[in-house]
Every structure is written in structure tokens, then in C-alpha cells.
Amino acid sequence: MNAPAHMVASFVSAAPLGDAAAWDAYVAQHCGASPFHSRLWCEAISHATGHRCHLVTSRDAAGALTGLLPLHHVRSRIFGEALVASGFAVGGGILADDPAVARMLAEGAADIAKSLGVPSVELRGAPLPGGADWYREEGVYAGFARDLAGDDEAELLAIPRKQRAEVRKALAGNLRVTSGRDGAERRDHYRVYAESVRNLGTPVFPRALFDDVLDAFGDDAEILTVRDGDRPVASVLSLYWRGAVMPYWGGGTFEARRLRANELMYFALMRRARERGCTRFDFGRSKLGTGPFAYKKNWGFEPEPLVYARWLAPGERPRDTNPNSARYRLQVDLWKKLPLWAANRLGPLIARGLG
């Protein structure tokens, strides 16, 4: 790398990762940081999945961090391998003080991929590097976020009329809501989430992934569950970050739609977030043209196009991890028919390779 004279590049690949205090401090002070840049996230992902994290950093002459880029080395016999920033995240990517540092970190990511023999680097956040070896990926995902209203009634009025009517019906039902981080909440969340993704035809992540993220983030991660009596029917694991709530891993059982449990779940999460002092609701990303994309628009969220970047070694093709891809259509249809016990046993072995 041809770095400016005042910059020094370094690569760290160990657990725990590098200078923990410096990493934490840099993320804490950077206005563009997301939870997916944090040491907490990166170490939790590595611990839960076994994917090693390589930290590309830039430092000034005094040794202070001026940029960092965490990369998980994701390996899969089915999906191939890549350096992913960040693993199992909807964001991450380069975090830098200025464009010159950002360019150097991008070059460093490509260099470490070459040294490891990894065919690609995937960046899931801005700033996006330029250069002939980097490809922009547009028109696949959109993000959804908006400010929270001041109270329940104002929140209802912020939801378009048709969806608002569904939420009011859910509020008038006999469902109840619980929240927490204890063993019972974790167990019930995983059961609901596992059934939800099986019904969609996709493999479930290892339970250790959820446990490690909850343990790492402490009070900044929480489960909210909707129950029909004592039976959990919808559940979501959310992250809290800089005044925003991020419903991250959520789903519902077959019964959830009839009971309008998902409507209650997200509305209750908005209420819970206000109680915790949050002012923003980050509904996450969805693929264009999918049911989740339309669902979030129905709640009054406007899609914001997301642009990612990928570096590819000469002659290599990008990984295909999209369950909507034509190459996986048969597998998705078959997965929906698996008994839940089988999907839960096989799913983590496959899903940990998605990254």
C-alpha cells in the first residue's frame, strides 16, 4: 500500500482482537460508527461461528487510530469464502477519519484477501472504495428508518391507515408482551425464530450467535416476545445504539399472522424504545420486491437505497447467498417441508457459512 507518510497500516487477527480500549474508544467517538463496527459485535460473531476476525487499522505518527475495518473470514463449502465487513451484519464497512484513510483501508482489505487466498471482500457500508477492482452493488437492498413519535397515539397516526387498523386490532386482542434477556426469553425467541425462518425456506443461525450477541451487548440488547397465553407466537431480538432501536432477528409462527402478533410486536417495541429514551426506529434492510420490503412500507417507512461494494480477485465470481436466487429455488422449497427438528439440527451447520 502507498500510504501517506503520516499513516501507518496494520493488520490484527487474534482473539481478543488487538488493543480493545483503543478500538472501543475510536468507535465511541466516530459519528459514523454502527454496532457492527464494534469490538463487541466482532468478537461475538467470531466466538459463535468460528469465523476469524481480521482488523485492518490505520494509525497516525503518534500511534492513534485514524481508521479501522473489521473483516470476518467466512468459509463455507456451499457458499464459498469471503472477507465480510461485518459478518452477519447489515452494516459495517470502513470507518475512517478522512477519504485518504478510507482508501488505504480498502487497499489493506484487498491485500489481506490476497495474502490469505480469499477470492473476495464484501463491504456492507459506506464509504465505498473506488478503483477498477471494486464493484458497486446497487438495487438489491433498501434500509428503513424513521423517528419515533412522542406517544402511542401519535405513533398510530404515523402509520398509514390500512396498517394502523391492523395494529389497533392487535392492541385490542388478548395477546400479551414480555421482554428481557433471561434464559426463558432466549429459549422462546429461538423457538419462534427457528420456526419462522424454516417456514421461509432458509436455515436458522446457531443459537450461540444470539446468546453471544446478547451477552456481549448486555443491556443494549433485548428480546421482546408476544404471547398467546403462555405460548410465544412472535419474538424479536433488538439492539439499542445511540438512541435508536434496531429490531434485528425477529419472526413469528404460523399463528402469528392470524393473531396479528407481528403488528403488536413492532408497535410494542416502539413503545419499549420510547421508555428507554430512544428517538429513532431502525427497521433494518430488506430486499427490493420482497414481502418484508412491502411490509415495512406499509408501516410508513420510506426505503433508502443501500449500496455495497465488493472486491474480487481476477477471474472470480461473487458469492451467491441470496435465498431468492434461482439457483436455490428447489432447496428453498424443500427446506420449507422439513420437520422443524430436522431444520433446527441441519440449519446452523449451513447458516454459519452465510456470514
TrEMBL record:
Alphabetized Gene3D superfamilies for the sequence: 3.40.630.30
BioF2-like acetyltransferase domain mapped to chain residues: 164-297
Family annotation (SUPFAM superfamilies): Acyl-CoA N-acyltransferases (Nat) (SSF55729)
PANTHER family: LIPID II:GLYCINE GLYCYLTRANSFERASE (PTHR36174)
The name this protein goes by in its record: FemAB-related protein, PEP-CTERM system-associated
Organism, as annotated: Sphingopyxis flava
Lineage: Bacteria, Pseudomonadati, Pseudomonadota, Alphaproteobacteria, Sphingomonadales
